[in-house]
Write a structure and sequence with these properties.
Blueprint: H1 2-24, H2 26-32, H3 38-44, H4 49-77, H5 80-98, H6 103-131, H7 135-163, H8 168-189, H9 204-215, H10 228-249
Helix pairs in contact: 1-6, 1-7, 1-8, 2-7, 4-5, 4-6, 4-9, 5-6, 5-8, 9-10
């Protein structure tokens, strides 16, 4: 009986890791998977280099704004509904990206895609905090960080292989399929009741910090030598760190509890 319960618990843990890892990978996959297709995209849509780069910027903005919205909403309404709505929006936007008639339509759809994908990123981390405490949180977060680190490396490779058999539009179809596959399994992994206020919101500062860190390498992408973009990134990093401190300091229980003596 004990062995059966342990096996069931291990199976549930693996399933949760796969689901939350998939949700955490939405951001990197959305940004990096279609990078090898940018030249072909520019030629087909008759877009300039700067216009094509706007599709990256729009997705990053959507990811940042979506995290700011999804955290508080999931605190109030529960995790399940916001993440399912986000996945649906992500999938529909990805499919529409695949049939975008112009570069400006693609930019707008990439913004919506980022908004939808952001729900999975922030709620994946909140679910870990809801279900676990102490050392278990550290283990789960280390796994999610591993997924988040591998996704940007693997995404361009996967995108390049997809381009061997289809066009850049096919890349968005593949990305959309991820959003259609995850909802059924995600619904079983996340709760549908309101959580303690601030659980997901507490990660907002971390995500702001990560957003700034991701954006920093893009400074100067358009050839500008102005100090303003870098100053903006530094300000975002600082605000994110301050948000982490104040949001977590006001919580009754810290994210990582100290072991009792």
């Amino acid at each position: 009986m004990i062995a059966a319960e342990s096996a069931a618990a291990a199976s549930d843990r693996v399933r949760l890791i796969l689901i939350l890892g998939g949700l955490s990978a939405f951001g990197p996959l959305s940004i990096d998977m279609y990078l090898p297709a940018l030249p072909a995209l520019a030629r087909e849509l008759s877009a300039s280099e700067s216009q094509v780069q706007l599709t990256l910027t729009a997705c990053l903005v959507g990811l940042a704004l979506g995290q700011a919205l999804a955290g508080p909403v999931s605190d109030a309404l529960g995790r399940r509904r916001p993440v399912l709505v986000g996945l649906a929006a992500y999938s529909v936007a990805s499919l529409l990206c695949a049939v975008a008639p112009s570069i400006f339509a693609l930019v707008a759809l990439r913004l919506v895609q980022g908004l939808g994908g952001a729900a999975g990123i922030v709620i994946a981390r909140a679910v870990v905090r809801d279900r676990h405490s102490g050392a278990a949180i550290a283990r789960f977060f280390s796994i999610l960080m591993l997924v988040s680190g591998l996704a940007p490396i693997l995404a361009p490779v996967i995108g390049g292989q997809i381009l061997c058999v289809t066009s850049w539009r096919g890349v968005f179809v593949v990305v959309a399929s991820l959003g259609f596959v995850l909802p059924n399994t995600t619904a079983l992994a996340v709760s549908n009741h309101p959580e303690a206020a601030g659980t997901a919101s507490a990660f907002l500062g971390v995500l702001q910090f990560l957003c700034g860190a991701v954006t920093a390498p893009l400074v100067g992408l358009w050839g500008t030598e102005s100090a303003l973009p870098m100053a903006t990134v530094i300000a975002a990093l600082g605000m994110g760190a301050i948000s982490v401190y104040y949001l977590l300091a006001g919580r009754p229980s810290p994210v990582l509890r100290r072991p009792s003596v």
